[in-house]
Design goal:
By secondary structure, this protein is of the alpha/beta class. It folds into three domains: about 120 residues, Glutaredoxin (3-Layer(aba) Sandwich); about 70 residues, Tetratricopeptide repeat domain (Serine Threonine Protein Phosphatase 5, Tetratricopeptide repeat, Alpha Horseshoe), CATH 1.25.40; about 80 residues, Alpha Horseshoe (Serine Threonine Protein Phosphatase 5, Tetratricopeptide repeat). The protein contains 15 helices and five strands. The protein has a five-stranded mixed β-sheet, with helices on both faces. A hairpin with a 2-residue loop joins strand 4 and strand 5.
């Protein structure tokens, strides 16, 4: 992924004569940022390189067209650009947002994110992602993977698409492919809660117990239902094989009997499972509700 980014160039020089083609027509396919600058403008010299870097790292989400207002004053005049640097975003042939002055890189990224979230294509991708989430929750891994894959193909840095695709691989027991997909996540998105949740899942499922170990753990709890250590051990094994529903049931059984067992050990493991599933997963929502009823009963 980094190799692709290093060769990508979504930045071009524009002019009054090419504005219709470079910006108005081009923005029918994707948002276009227009950077109005001049050689004598000090703040322009600090803003433009940052703009170029952010746009080129965005995998083609937006394009950047730079217009020197000394050589091309007409468009700047029509748009009433009175101070530079000035950046105006176009989508579907019309200006939709903008800013003036040399702002920090983080604010530039936020500005671009807002532009992208408002586009028709972004809304369509969100709809596909919503359908993919439902398919995965219903156990239709194939349909979910196909939808997530389509989103990633359209937007290679889409975190929801990448995380969803990784979860599909995990559902099929392919942790290596899941890790490969996560390597495609943009560096500035690595701390996204969705990414952290699937990384936690990989951590919890790193070691799969042998069949005889699982059988022994089940037999131990069946023989002695009050054995909290045995039930906790069984829950850990269930998490490692992806049976989160049953693992949550056993951890809640421990907490129902002894909320602070082993200094909150079962509660900590339960929260790890919730983190791995993500806050919106039905198992997390229902598990937290059941935990609350135990705490406040």
């Amino acid at each position: 992924m980094s190799e692709l980014n290093s060769h990508a160039n979504y930045v071009s020089e524009g002019s009054d004569q090419t504005f219709m083609l470079d910006v108005i027509e081009a923005s029918q396919a994707q948002p276009v940022l227009v950077d109005f600058w001049a050689p004598w403008c000090g703040p322009c010299k600090s803003l433009t390189p940052v703009l170029e870097r952010v746009v080129n790292s965005g995998n083609g989400g937006v394009r950047l067209v730079k217009i020197n207002i000394d050589e091309n004053p007409d468009i700047a005049g029509q748009l009433r650009v009175q101070s530079i640097p000035a950046v105006i975003a176009f989508d579907k042939g019309r200006p939709v947002n903008g800013f003036q002055g040399a702002i920090p890189e983080g604010q530039i990224k936020q500005f671009i994110d807002q532009i992208l979230k408002g586009t028709d294509s972004a809304k369509q991708l969100e709809s596909v992602l919503d359908d993919a989430d439902v398919a995965l929750q219903n156990g239709d891994v194939g349909a979910a993977a196909q939808a997530y894959g389509a989103v990633v193909e359209a937007d290679r840095g889409n975190v929801r698409g990448l995380v969803g695709l990784a979860r599909c691989y995990l559902a099929n027991g392919d942790a290596d492919r899941a890790r490969q997909v996560l390597e495609m996540v943009p560096e500035d998105k690595l701390e996204d809660p969705l990414v952290l949740s699937v990384l936690k899942t990989l951590e919890l499922t790193a070691e799969t117990p042998a069949d005889d170990e699982m059988t022994a753990a089940l037999d131990r709890v069946s023989a002695n239902p009050g054995d909290h250590a045995g039930r906790y051990d069984l829950a850990e094994k269930l998490v490692s094989v992806g049976d989160n529903q049953l693992a949550i049931d056993h951890l809640l059984k421990v907490l129902r009997d002894d909320l602070n067992w082993e200094d909150g050990k079962a509660k900590s493991k339960l929260f790890e499972v919730f983190d791995a599933l993500g806050p919106k997963d039905p198992l997390t929502v229902e598990g937290r509700r059941r935990l609350s009823s135990i705490i406040f009963s």
